[in-house]
Amino acid sequence: MSDLEGYREKKKRWQKFMYSYNAAMCFSAGPPMVLAPDFARKLLKWPHDDPVMMGIYGSIVTSVGVLSAAALRDESKYAEFLPVLLTQIMYKTATCLLIANRWRKKEASSWGMHFLFWFFVLYIVFLAQAIPWKAGTCCGEDDGCCRG
């Protein structure tokens, strides 16, 4: 097995893990945000927020779970679902920067914010492991879909 094939296999394992993890996490967090926003807010001790925004965010989280579950149906389609992982890296990084800015301003924060920050940092690290950053490595045998 060449180094490139080994790299692809490693990334495929990470992608399978992240799609599985996304599906589990998103299906456990998204529907409660949509169906029971007050419960979700009380559980994490978040300040009162517009229930519509909690519903929108819960819907987005649930959608990520659905897309991740769809990716797991066919291993050869993992590369087609990479935008799900890339989008997560972007919004989780932006969320961490916003939380860090609140801390820099010495604004009060709950344990939920601290948990969310460190949970997202760990999530970003795992997501970065799943993405094939080397050019030409995303599609296995079908290199026509790669942009590198």
In sequence order, what are the helices and strands, one letter per element? HHHHH
Backbone shape: globular
C-alpha Rg, in Å? 17 Å
Largest sheet: none
Average pLDDT, to the nearest integer?
A: 84
- What is the number of domains? 1
The tally of helices reads 5
Report low-confidence residues grouped into runs of 5 or more: none
Share of residues in helices: over 70%
Q: Give the N-to-C terminal Cα separation.
A: 22 Å
Beta-strand content: under 5%
Subunit organisation of the chains = single chain
Instruction: Output the structural class.
Output: mainly alpha
DSSP summary, beta strand count:
0
Descriptive keywords:
148 residues
Descriptive account of the structure:
This protein is mainly α and about 150 residues long. The chain has one domain (about 5-140). It has helices at about 5-35, 35-45, 50-70, 80-105, 110-130. It is globular.
What's the short story on this structure?
With 148 residues, the chain is mostly helical.
Would you spell out the secondary-structure blueprint of this structure?
Layout: H1 3-35, H2 37-44, H3 51-72, H4 82-104, H5 111-130
Helix pairs in contact: 1-2, 1-3, 1-5, 4-5
